[in-house]
Specification:
Blueprint (H helix, E strand, L loop, with lengths): L6 H9 L3 H5 L9 H12 L1 H11 L13 H12 L3 E11 L2 E11 L2 E12 L19 H21 L6 E10 L13 E5 L7 E5 L3 H6 L8 E5 L1 H9 L16 H13 L30 H10 L16 H4 L2 H7 L26 H13 L2 H4 L6 E2 L2 E3 L1 H8 L6 E9 L15 E12 L5 E10 L8 H12 L6 E3 L3 H14 L6 H11 L1 E4 L2 E4 L5 E2 H8 E2 L9 H11 L1 H7 L40 H4 L19 H12 L7 H29 L2
Parallel strand pairs: 3-4, 10-13, 13-16
Antiparallel strand pairs: 1-2, 2-3, 4-7, 5-6, 8-9, 9-17, 10-11, 11-12, 14-15
Helix pairs in contact: 1-6, 3-23, 6-8, 15-24, 17-18, 20-24
Length: 694
């Protein structure tokens, strides 16, 4: 089958023109995008949105073109378009080497509405497709606008070849999840289930319920939470090359839309390696082979750097600026790359300006940058201001930690939530992507009279009931866990505070018998801002991530302070933690666990002598999902694990979007993963506490 320049190829070319060369033959280059895209679409309910859209336009099996053979698909499309009025799903259009499958075509006489369906959220009361200056499109929605513009560009030409006697008017629409609208029916998401074909390769697909078409037809158009937005004028301007971003060679190849399409379609179809510009966006290249990949597939990321910078980033021992987190260096990395400063030791004092106005406690992002570079390069001149607080390569501000700890009250509580947000709401009165809190874990640390302490995995919650709104049961269970004392509560980052405030808002719209008690509880442990006035509860949760940011640094963290990277750095920093948890004590009466029936040793050393990341020790999740993810020709590899947060969301979505109940094994895997999240917080606290009390 010949190669065609499709809408997905076009979109990829905007991310990086070189990616198309690497994507041409899936067996030649490693590609990490395959897993991520499927998990994301499953977790967000993207597959269901597509089916919902078809029913909104009354498209049944006869008008849904399923053949994958381009010529046959084009033939079927032409036959259907010969009707005066018709709606079509997956209509096919071919002109030259460009081939597109339109999500939905609505034909009314000589007017053809092209409707691209996306699970992307959109709030028409707040969002705009074009920036206020009118010179650039909104960056957050830009890929989708250019996607539908490319489709319109192909359709206009293809229709002239299909029907030379006709003069069709093509209008472009984006069908998006409207966050300004509330669902008016319960169980909208339950109308579309993921099925697995038992025949052949067991391919996965979405099946609408028998009553789905009737249910959606009964929803007034004005009340539908996924609806089309007119973007035709924007698409016309994109095709005309009117927007400023089209002159950026890192976005388009210069010269505007048409020139870019001509070059990229030719290069892709003829397998020509298009020139590219290296920059910080390369650091997330999906064609960078994983370190544990034992296949013989090539590494596109390294090939680009060898070609453009003259070195192999996987082979060098010099610390790269890639390792400097964008959290505290931002766009500076692109400036350094343009100046051919690829390594940390290439940077000069002029590049590393200190933050001049320090009006805060603890480390800031600028100082963490200095620390990272100093440790990575061994630059003592850089480290001299921090050396007094360093233990080897680790920076630990004991005075700052002691100041933080003086306000903490035992028993200490460590909580972590798992949540889901999908395009099609689970329940009435909910908006698209409104949060569902389906799981939490809770560790407690009690102080004994002799100054010692006891760690207990004290509680947990998980909802495994299909079609059930869990948020209020969730908050009741959390209240029961935390209302027994006035001990300090810890979260990691702001997610938990955000979710609790969202549940508080959801309670406003419901008539729960204990509504006031639940809202008062939420108010007591959270903070919020209203009309520029800040409020904080008497037990407002302590953000352990903020404590880490201000007081702790280790080069293993790579500049990040995500708990997934802080945990292994702490385990490698603390001899105390290593000694304690190399013993089989966790999951015993000494340190009880809700999920582990046998004692667990959390300390395991790799060949490099460093402590392995405990998240790598968790069981794989793919085997529990039971999906051969062939939707959109994606594959779900068995290497995915619960340690991938997206996989946990996908697992919950899969349970909600299928007829099968969550298996005991999957439930156990999810609970164990969440338990490790709160145990990781305990490890961090225990390290800090032990160091401060030596």
């Amino acid at each position: 089958m010949p190669k065609y320049f499709t809408k997905s190829a076009f979109t990829m070319s905007l991310e990086c023109p070189r990616r198309l060369y690497y994507a041409y033959d899936k067996d030649t280059y490693a590609n990490q995008d395959v897993d991520d895209e499927f998990l994301r679409s499953l977790a967000e309910g993207g597959f269901q949105v597509g089916e919902f859209a078809k029913l909104c336009y009354g498209i049944g099996a006869t008008n849904n073109i399923k053949t994958l053979e381009p010529a046959d698909a084009v033939r079927q499309t032409k036959e259907l378009l010969s009707q005066e009025n018709v709606n079509i799903a997956e209509a096919a259009f071919l002109v030259g080497n460009m081939f597109v499958r339109a999500d939905i075509i609505e034909k009314k006489g000589d007017v053809i509405n092209l409707i691209e369906v996306k699970a992307k959220s959109w709030n028409p009361l707040e969002d705009t497709f074009v920036l206020k200056n009118g010179k650039s499109t909104n960056k957050a929605i830009r890929p989708y606008l250019y996607d539908v513009a490319f489709q319109k560009y192909v359709l206009v030409q293809a229709l002239k070849e299909m029907f030379p006697e006709k003069n069709f008017k093509v209008n472009a629409f984006l069908m998006l999840a409207d966050k300004s609208r509330n669902a008016t029916v319960n169980g909208l998401n339950q109308l579309f289930k993921i099925k697995t074909d038992s025949k052949g390769k067991g391919k996965s697909y979405v099946e609408a319920a028998a009553n789905a078409a009737e249910a959606i037809s009964n929803i007034p158009v004005a009340d539908r939470v996924v609806r089309p937005f007119d973007v035709d004028d924007v698409c016309e301007r994109i095709i005309a090359g009117d927007y400023a971003e089209q002159q950026d060679p890192e976005f388009m190849l210069g010269g505007g839309f048409v020139k870019h399409v001509e070059i990229m379609s030719n290069d892709y179809c003829n397998h020509i390696k298009t020139d590219c510009v290296i920059g910080s966006k390369c650091f997330a290249c999906p064609f960078h082979r994983k370190t544990d990949d034992s296949s013989d597939k090539r590494d596109g990321y390294c090939e680009c750097w060898i070609e453009k910078a003259g070195f192999d980033p996987s082979a060098t021992t010099r610390p790269l600026i890639k390792e400097m987190s964008g959290q505290y260096i931002g766009t500076k990395r692109d400036d350094y790359i343009k100046e051919k400063k690829y390594f940390m030791d290439d940077l000069t004092d002029a590049d590393l300006k200190r933050h001049s106005d320090k009006s805060h406690e603890g480390l800031d992002h600028y100082e963490r940058k200095w620390l990272h570079i100093g440790v990575a390069t061994g630059n003592e001149d850089v480290l001299k201001d921090y050396r007094s607080k360093m233990q080897g390569d680790a920076y630990l501000d004991l005075a700052g930690l002691k100041d933080e700890m003086k306000d903490w009250n035992f028993p200490l509580h460590f909580i972590d939530f798992e949540t889901s947000a999908v395009a099609l709401p689970f329940y009435d009165k909910m908006r698209p992507y409104e949060q569902i809190a389906f799981q939490f874990s809770h560790h407690r640390v009690d102080r004994n009279d002799d100054g010692t302490y006891k760690i207990t995995h004290a509680g947990q919650f998980i909802n495994t009931e299909q079609g059930h709104f869990p948020n209020f049961d969730f908050i009741r269970a959390l209240k029961a866990e935390l209302d027994k004392d006035n001990g300090t509560i810890f979260r990691y980052s702001n997610h938990e505070n955000t979710i609790l405030r969202e549940i508080h808002r959801q309670l406003d719209a419901r008539n729960e018998p204990d509504k006031k008690e639940l809202q008062d509880f939420i108010d007591s442990i959270t903070h919020y801002e209203e009309e520029k006035v800040k409020f904080a509860g008497e037990r407002d949760m302590v953000d352990l991530a903020d404590v880490v940011l201000k007081n702790y640094f280790h080069p293993i963290m790579g500049g990040s302070y995500s708990i997934k990277v802080v945990l292994p750095s702490v385990l490698n920093s603390s001899g105390f933690i290593q000694s304690k948890y190399s013993q089989p004590i966790y999951g015993t009466s000494e340190m009880p666990s809700q999920n582990l029936s046998e004692a667990k040793v959390w300390i395991d050393y790799g060949e490099d002598g460093k402590v392995k990341n405990p998240y790598k020790l968790l069981p794989p999740i793919a085997s529990y999902l039971g999906i051969d993810a062939d939707l959109n020709e994606l594959e779900l590899k068995e290497t995915e694990s619960v340690a991938n947060g997206g996989a946990a969301l996908a697992a919950y979505a899969k349970m909600q979007f299928s007829d099968a109940a969550m298996s005991e094994a999957l439930e156990k895997a999810l609970l164990t993963y969440c338990e490790l999240d709160t145990l990781a917080m305990v490890f961090i606290w225990e390290y800090f506490f032990n160091e401060c009390n030596k």
